[in-house]
Design goal:
The chain has 453 residues and is of the alpha/beta class. It is 37% helix and 15% strand. The protein folds into two domains: 2-313, Transcription Regulator spoIIAA (2-Layer Sandwich), CATH 3.30.750.200; 404-451, no CATH class. Bound molecules: iron/sulfur cluster.
């Protein structure tokens, strides 16, 4: 499993606390630094091919010029096929790459996903991704209500999202995932009414787009209206019939505009009852349309589970490349790159400044051996998980999935809390596996908290 973090966005969405920046003039340097990171970490990269997935996330990866994306994908493929990045760069002429017309020479990933935003999807772009071997697209739609989208400060409207889906389908994508968000109150208000006097105007996170649609005062929307909006979102997504749907409850992320609005009393989240009702409607509607829920937030048509994300829940090893990306050795070592594009470029962009890394140091003789560079550079940090951390992580990840986890893997001292939760119906035991029943998945976090020591 290989993950690349592309940390650039054109503007920031109201609810988002992910690390990303708007300085797109740095994308070229970022790409060069990524090539260097791939080279430095090639030994560990080669250990992360089961499952064989490549996932480009962000940020907004659809802002990445396809020629640069192709260069990085070809470099990774070269490394996986036993070449070095410098061989690859020298023989191809760095920065001179162009889409060659097919995916020849590109490692055949079982699943190669790129996240896209609807406003970036053109026919040309979609076809270029196909030629690069991308076989799955994940598109952040979030809602099919224009006013909700404006409130979220998304850069697209509902019709644009539907059109982007059509373009992806006509380009030949047979595996498309769409994201939706529920559990928010869009404080519906005409954009024109809220353009002035917005206390968040001038906030560093608020783009020109997000200045519009913000309420001056919080006036909650009725529960009936919120249910109606959500019903409409579900109706529309079922008509499109993507192979995969991820639906997340909106949170108050630290550093987000929404988090700031909530702490200053200008936004109130809808009640837990309303969010639970929306979640239940989601489960019922998608089940009736033939979707299978396989994780708290994920639904797919049969055989279309996300292979890459499922690997995270199984604790498979993965490498994360780019600023802020995390890596895991599949056992107890975790590392992460600092979420700072400038520091990332400063460290990886100038190869002469880097200490040498023993080639082929893929053993487990220390953090640098496991991850390729950890401990050698100031841009990475890491931790070694304790037995307790591993147990907590295993339970938290597995119980969010409908497959659950084998009872036998749990230590004896948890038996009392397991019995209690079984007796109240918060857990079920089937075929030797503990699971949270579908009608309680919405409160899975509190069930898991009760279970863990
Ligand atoms: S949700 Fe919006 S701000 Fe956050 S990463 Fe996606 S496009 Fe960027």
């Amino acid at each position: 499993m290989i993950y690349i973090h592309f940390p650039f966005c054109k503007s920031f969405c109201t609810y988002c606390g992910f690390y990303s920046v708007r300085e797109r003039d740095k994308i070229g340097k970022y790409t060069e630094s990524l090539l260097r990171e791939i080279d430095l970490r090639k030994a560990f990269l080669c250990q992360c091919t089961r499952p064989s997935t490549l996932y480009i996330g962000g940020g907004t990866p659809s802002l990445w010029p396809v020629e640069q994306l192709e260069e990085v994908v070809r470099a990774i493929s070269a490394v996986l096929q036993g070449e070095t990045v410098s061989d690859y760069v020298n023989s191809n002429g760095h920065s001179g790459s162009t889409i060659s017309g097919d995916a020849a020479g590109i490692f055949p990933f079982a699943e190669f996903t790129v996240e896209v935003n609807p406003d970036d999807v053109t026919e040309e772009y979609a076809l270029a991704l196909r030629r690069l071997g991308v076989n799955r697209v994940s598109m952040g739609v979030q809602s099919f209500c224009d006013r909700s989208l404006r409130w979220m400060a998304r850069r697209h409207g509902a019709a644009e999202a539907v059109e982007a889906f059509r373009v992806l389908r006509s380009a030949g994508f047979g595996n498309i995932s769409l994201d939706l968000i529920f559990g928010y109150d869009p404080v519906l208000q005409d954009a024109a009414d809220s353009a002035d006097g917005n206390v968040l105007a001038g906030h560093p996170c608020v783009s020109e787009f997000s200045d519009r649609g913000m309420a001056r005062e919080f006036h909650g929307t009725s529960d009936e209206e919120l249910m109606r909006l959500w019903d409409n979102d579900l109706e529309t997504i079922m008509r499109l019939r993507p192979e995969h749907i991820s639906a997340y409850q909106m949170g108050l992320d630290e550093g987000s505009v929404l988090g700031e609005m909530a702490s200053s009393g200008r936004y109130r989240e809808p009640s837990d009852e309303l969010c639970a009702a929306q979640y239940s409607l989601l489960q019922r509607r998608l089940a009736s349309a033939g979707y299978v829920q396989y994780e708290v937030s994920n639904f797919s048509l049969p055989g279309r589970r996300a292979v890459h994300n499922s690997g995270y829940w199984d604790r498979s090893p993965y490498i994360g490349l780019g600023p802020g990306a995390h890596s895991f050795d599949g056992d107890r070592r975790r590392s992460w790159n600092v979420p700072d594009v400038d520091r990332y470029i400063a460290a990886f962009g100038d190869s002469a400044a880097l200490p040498p890394v023993a080639s082929g140091s893929s053993g487990d003789s220390g953090a640098s051996g496991s991850f390729g560079f950890l401990g050698l550079l100031s841009v990475a940090s890491g931790e070694v998980l304790t037995e307790e951390d591993i147990l907590t992580e295993t339970v938290m990840l597995a119980l969010r999935t409908v497959d659950g986890l084998p009872l036998l893997r749990l230590p004896r001292f948890m038996q009392a809390s397991i019995d209690r939760l079984l007796s109240t119906g918060s857990l079920i035991l089937r075929d030797g596996r503990l699971r949270i029943p579908p009608d309680r998945l919405f409160i899975s976090d509190s069930i898991i908290r009760e279970l863990l020591p």
